[in-house]
């Protein structure tokens, strides 16, 4: 089907005006929360719109459950070394204060932390309200207000009907570059249209966690023995477990584990593209069925899980990749692999290339180092008064498999919020702002970029 992608209106329309603000943030995930809180704290009048009744995006609705990307990878270090701070650390430390996050957990050659999704929502909401952000839940993006190449606001849909929000700057933190798409601006999609597999992450209760950890070990990534067991059970015909390398995390709640195990393909084994509503729907119900199969495997074959039950799945399927904008600059695969440093870097990432395709995810570690993400990967090559934040930044396929994780999305939102505020204060186009200036302001705001 040929969908109508761009929904655009100009000066003349008969829609009511809901608000006229400085900064509008579309999407309440990690990037959107950081962007909105930062812009508001820097003196702007901010509205954040979110399709659900809570913030969290992939971290909460998709139940990704971890803040990945804070720590170096290493073969030599026995303890985690944190290199990402700023809004990421501000959020993590508040989660810790409320008892909603674990200490660092071993993840292959690096570390990550697992969070409580309810505490995540509460921390995000409190940060936004305390900084003066106006939150609009249960509100969807329908289209954009556009004059020539200037974005003047967006069209929203609510239970009360449709309206417009005027804004001096729009931050597209939708994850799927929805504003860019509706405006008719350029984007790309994975590797010539092939994107990373979606997943359905789930939580299980009733676990004897001490017994489980004695069997499983300290690494959240399963051992070769567990992978071999999955292969043999599949071969016997008793199970259908399409991913053989699975990850299981201890959580901050007693008797509970977070499980990242599923690999979602269509019923005809096709790769699913979750911006297509048919594929998205299929991913949801097939994902829930697959959760039950992996839960059965854990209960019948993994020590400590004998009394296991499924606590919950994601509100929606976990989405790793959809649209990425065509930016003024693009983060390249070589930038990541060479650990390139930048004077205009607004985020650093030590996270490996973690590419989910096939039965075993491909992981390429960046040992004892990190790369910088340049500011202009957030600026679309075409369009004014708009900046992106989150996994829809301009990046090549493999580069995005590293750059898309939560710690970095917090950092992109932090940068976008400061850039939006500076654009308004200086009355200057976003694309004319020097990334080195944003980096300096981020460091003044706690980012600790080297």
Could you describe the 3D structure shown?
- The strands form six sheets. Strands 1, 2, 3, 7, 8, 9, 10 and 21 form an eight-stranded mixed β-sheet that branches. Strands 13-14-12-15 form a four-stranded antiparallel β-sheet, with helices on one face.
- A hairpin with a 2-residue loop joins strand 5 and strand 6 (110-114).
- It has helices at residues 30-41, 57-60, 86-97, 117-131, 178-183, 209-216, 224-236, 277-301, 333-337, 397-403, 406-426, 435-444, and strands at 8-9, 17-26, 46-49, 66-67, 105-107, 110-114, 134-136, 140-147, 150-158, 161-172, 187-189, 202-205, 247-250, 257-260, 309-313, 323-325, 345-349, 353-355, 362-364, 371-374, 386-388.
- Helices cover 31% and strands 22% of the residues.
- It has twelve helices and 21 strands.
- It is of the alpha/beta class and 450 residues long.
Short description:
Helices cover 31% and strands 22% of the residues.
Task: Detail the topology: elements first, then pairings.
Layout: E1 8-9, E2 17-26, H1 30-41, E3 46-49, H2 57-60, E4 66-67, H3 86-97, E5 105-107, E6 110-114, H4 117-131, E7 134-136, E8 140-147, E9 150-158, E10 161-172, H5 178-183, E11 187-189, E12 202-205, H6 209-216, H7 224-236, E13 247-250, E14 257-260, H8 277-301, E15 309-313, E16 323-325, H9 333-337, E17 345-349, E18 353-355, E19 362-364, E20 371-374, E21 386-388, H10 397-403, H11 406-426, H12 435-444
Parallel strand pairs: 1-8, 2-3, 2-10, 3-7, 10-21
Antiparallel strand pairs: 4-6, 5-6, 8-9, 9-10, 11-16, 12-14, 12-15, 13-14, 17-20, 18-19
Helix pairs in contact: 1-4, 1-11, 11-12
């Amino acid at each position: 089907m040929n969908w109508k992608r761009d929904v655009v209106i100009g000066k003349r329309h008969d829609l009511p005006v809901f608000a006229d603000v400085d900064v509008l943030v579309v999407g309440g995930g990690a990037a959107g929360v950081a962007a909105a809180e930062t812009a508001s704290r820097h003196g702007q009048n901010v509205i954040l719109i979110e399709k659900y009744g809570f913030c969290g995006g992939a971290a909460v609705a998709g139940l990704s459950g971890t803040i990945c990307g804070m720590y170096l990878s290493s073969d030599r270090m026995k303890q985690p070394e944190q290199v990402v701070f700023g809004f990421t650390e501000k959020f993590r430390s508040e989660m810790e204060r409320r008892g909603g996050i674990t200490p660092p957990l071993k993840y292959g050659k690096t570390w990550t932390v697992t969070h409580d999704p309810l505490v995540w929502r509460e921390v995000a909401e409190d940060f936004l309200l305390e900084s003066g952000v106006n939150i609009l839940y249960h509100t969807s993006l329908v289209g954009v207000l556009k004059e020539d190449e200037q974005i003047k606001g967006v069209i929203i849909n609510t239970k009360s009907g449709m309206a417009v929000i005027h804004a001096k700057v729009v931050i597209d933190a939708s994850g799927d570059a929805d504003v860019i798409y509706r405006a008719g601006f350029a984007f790309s999609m994975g590797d010539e249209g092939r994107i990373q597999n979606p997943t359905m992450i789930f939580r299980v209760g009733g676990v004897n966690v001490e017994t489980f950890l004695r069997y499983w070990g300290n690494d959240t990534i399963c051992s070769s023995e567990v992978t071999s067991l999955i292969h043999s059970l599949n071969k016997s015909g008793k199970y259908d477990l399409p991913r053989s390398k699975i990850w299981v995390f201890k959580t901050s709640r007693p008797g509970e584990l977070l499980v990242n195990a599923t690999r979602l393909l269509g019923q005809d084994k096709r790769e699913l593209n979750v911006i297509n509503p048919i594929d998205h729907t299929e991913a949801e119900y097939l994902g829930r069925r697959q959760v039950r199969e992996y839960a059965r495997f854990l209960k019948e074959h993994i020590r400590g899980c004998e009394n296991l039950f499924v606590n919950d799945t994601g509100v929606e399927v976990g989405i790793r990749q959809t649209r990425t904008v065509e930016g003024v600059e693009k983060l390249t695969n070589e930038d990541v692999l060479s650990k390139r440093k930048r004077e205009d870097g607004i985020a650093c990432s030590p996270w490996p290339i973690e590419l989910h395709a096939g039965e075993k995810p491909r992981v390429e570690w960046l040992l004892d180092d990190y790369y910088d993400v340049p500011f202009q990967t957030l600026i679309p090559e075409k369009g004014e008064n708009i900046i992106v934040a989150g996994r829809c930044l301009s990046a090549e396929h493999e580069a995005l498999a590293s750059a898309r994780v939560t710690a970095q999305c917090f950092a992109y939102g932090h940068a976008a919020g400061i850039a939006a505020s500076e654009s308004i204060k200086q009355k200057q186009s976003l694309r004319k702002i020097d990334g080195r200036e944003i980096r300096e302001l981020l460091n003044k705001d706690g980012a600790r970029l080297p």
